[in-house]
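Entry:
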Amino acid sequence: MMDGSVVIIGSGLGGLECGYILARHGFKVTVLEQSDRIGGCLQTFVRGRALFDTGFHYVGGLGDGEPLNRLFSYFGLMALPWKRLDPECSDEVVIGGKSYPFACGHVRFAERLSEHFPHQKENILKYTSFLKNVGDHIFDAFTCRDTFSMDLFSRSAYGFLKETISDPLLRQVLSGTSLKMELDAESLPLYVFAQIHNSYISSAWRLLGGGSQIADSLAEDIRAMGGEIRTDAKVTAIIEAGGRAAKVEVNGGETLDADWIISDIHPSATLALVEESAAFRNIYRRRISALQNTYGMFTANIRLKPGTLKYVNRNIFIHDQDTDLWRPVSGKTGSVMVNWPVPYDGSEDAISLDLLTPMRWEEVAKWSGCPVGHRGEDYVEFKRLKTDRCVAMAETVIPGLRDAIDRVYTSTPLSYGSYLADPDGTAYGLKKDWRSPMTTVLSPKTPLPGLLLTGQNLNLHGMLGVSVTSLFTCAEILGIDEMRNIISVPL
């Protein structure tokens, strides 16, 4: 056990996991959250009889022995009410009206897709075998063996897909569940594509009762280990003393001393808190500020009329025939994901569903200066039209959806920017680029001693990526050997 004090800025998954690890190792942990609720994208909200998630919808790799299971077991999260999606079809991809099933398990995944693309059977097997190999090596980064992940960060995901899969339609199908990342033929690294897709092929899960339970569980354990979690506590400055980050200013007045400061907020927002420091040369600041953010998301959270639609134990990804999933997202809505929250009453009837489609900041930028709730009728009409398009696409697969709608609640990248302080309303953090991995894949260690970064902007986004990154961050304090002990990885 060690002792010392750690202040963590932000209570998203990465911040809470770092707090959990360090509290468990004897540190005095204080987590500061500017909002009145913890959890970041793990937050849920209730409207009438319906419960909705803000950013969490489902996870992969949670089966026995799988990577996220190993991590969540350490964090005490496997006791939550996880519900496995249909192993025969956890994701359904619909392109031009034709449906393709994504089964769980690499062998079964290949078998089911090969039924639709028999001429591509060998290529599908190569694809799934490669993804499995990537997943099997995810923890090599904590050993002396790892050159694997950085090699794949330096390869093009789209290039790999074209080399492996000769059928253009099958390439679209295999990319069809990728609303959980930003596809970009020019920049997306192979490692991001392969690691995330592999986890969902392994197994797919929803959480009965919403993602806020993850944040609440971690927070409860941090407090039980002597830590403190404060809401309505906005960090307004990081203060340097003796050549290292030594304290934070809270709400413009109060200061807290710390041996270590971990920031779970966007790197550019972190740098803005350090006004002057010889450690942060202008070239470093310019490098961080020049990094691009991934796109945001438009979400229509739909409360259904009681008894109108049955719960569906899979996700549905619907794409127009002419939508190129690897080209930049435009204002045209050509893709939509349908997510069905697990009914909390145990019935077969769906209580709600979510429709999600990618959205760039530019679509809503003209309303960015307006306060929440006062963006005008044109913004309301913009969201209505976007919702109508998403519902029309979803209704091609879910007959009667429009008549089943009781109430719709919408969010845009502006919502993420307002409530979660995500620049440009980014859904997946900073954009990674295989052509420049050394500048777009960030280290937890900053040039200012005592100040560390964590969260989705560094390495991988998503539950698995952020959880792995939290270990990298804590390794800067506890050492890499202790992280290997946590996940039981031998040298």
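The longest helix spans residues 377-395.
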